[in-house]
Amino acid sequence: MTKIAVISYSPVYNLGTEKIAKWHRDQGDAVITSHRVNEYSLQCEKAYLSAIFTPGLPRLCEDARTLTAAGVTVEIGGPAPTAMPGYVKENCGIKPHIGLDERFEH
After folding, report:
1. What's the predicted TM-score (pTM) here?
2. Would you state the pLDDT for residue 47?
3. Mean pLDDT of the chain
4. Is 7 within 8 Å of 41 (Cβ atoms)?
5. DSSP-assigned states of every residue in the chain
6. I want to staple 61 with a disulfide (CB 3.0 to 4.6 A). Which of 35, 79, 91, 103 is the partner?
7. Residue 33 burial by CB count (10 A; 0-12/13-18/19+): exposed, middle or buried?
């Protein structure tokens, strides 16, 4: 069983993060969802970070740096990183996934 963190930096429902969490739960993984890095997410093997709106990007990038420093594998996606991939890459060193992720669409 893999420990997975799914973190949404948006104040509204985030369908993408729900799909990721469901997919991993269906695989038998232990999943926690939150709106910011916490003690559990720092102990996970993998974390997915998503923001719908661009004001969430600075916190997303800060948390991505914190997670990678703790040895957690981080994937970033969502509408805001898709709209500003250069900002995300420059501020946390991770190239975000652009558009829908087919792994979680079926």
Report:
1. 0.93
2. 98
3. 94
4. yes
5. --EEEEEE-SSS--HHHHHHHHHHHHTT-EEEEESS--HHHHT-SEEEEE-SSGGGHHHHHHHHHHHHHTT-EEEEESHHHHH-HHHHHHHHS-PPPPS--GGG--
6. 91
7. middle
